[in-house]
Design brief:
2 strands, two-stranded parallel sheet, mainly alpha
C-alpha cells in the first residue's frame, strides 16, 4: 500500500515538474549483505559459536551411541534392565534440545543486533547521500521493477565502506 501511495505521488510530481525530480532505489538486501562490516561480523559470530556447535555435535553423536546400545539390548532379549539407559538417553536428548535452542537463540539475537546496527548505519548514510546528491525520493523494497538508472544501491555501499 505504501508503495502505491509513493508511486502515486511520484506520478503527480512527474506530471507537474518531471525534469526537477531525482529518484533513487535501494536494494536493501544487496546493501546489507555486500557490506564488509556485515560479512566480518557474521564471520565473528560464526567463529564465536563454532566451539559450541562442535560440542553439540559431539553430544548428538553420544546420544546416537546410547540409542544404538539400547537397541542392541532390546534385540538381544536380555533380561538386563535398560531403565537406567533409557533415562540416560532421555536426559541426554532433553539436554541436547535445550542446549541447541539456547545456542540458536543466542546466535540469532546476535545477528538481529548486528542487523539493527547496520540498519542505523545504512539509514544515516542514505539520508546524507540523498541530501548531498539532491535526491527528492529514494525507494526501497517491494518494488516490482527498477531500472538501473535509478538503482543507487552500489553508491550507498560505497559510501558506507568509506566510513
Amino acid at each position: 500500500m505504501k508503495v502505491l501511495v509513493i508511486l502515486f505521488f511520484c506520478f503527480l510530481c512527474f506530471s507537474t515538474n518531471a525534469e526537477n525530480i531525482k529518484i533513487g532505489f535501494i536494494d536493501t538486501n544487496q546493501v546489507v549483505t555486500s557490506l564488509s562490516q556485515y560479512k566480518t561480523s557474521i564471520d565473528e559470530i560464526s567463529s564465536e559459536f563454532e566451539p559450541k556447535k562442535q560440542e553439540l555435535l559431539d553430544l548428538y553423536n553420544h546420544i546416537e551411541l546410547v540409542r544404538t546400545k539400547i537397541d542392541e539390548i532390546l534385540k538381544s532379549d536380555s533380561n538386563k534392565s535398560i531403565e537406567d539407559d533409557l533415562a540416560k538417553l532421555s536426559n541426554l536428548e532433553q539436554s541436547f534440545r535445550k542446549e541447541t535452542e539456547f545456542w540458536q537463540n543466542t546466535m540469532n539475537n546476535k545477528k538481529i543486533d548486528l542487523l539493527k546496527e547496520i540498519e542505523i548505519l545504512v539509514n544515516q548514510t542514505i539520508n546524507e547521500y540523498a541530501k548531498r546528491e539532491n535526491y527528492d525520493l529514494i525507494l526501497y523494497e517491494n518494488i516490482a521493477f527498477v531500472s538501473d538508472k535509478v538503482d543507487i544501491s552500489k553508491e550507498i555501499i560505497d559510501e558506507i565502506e568509506k566510513l
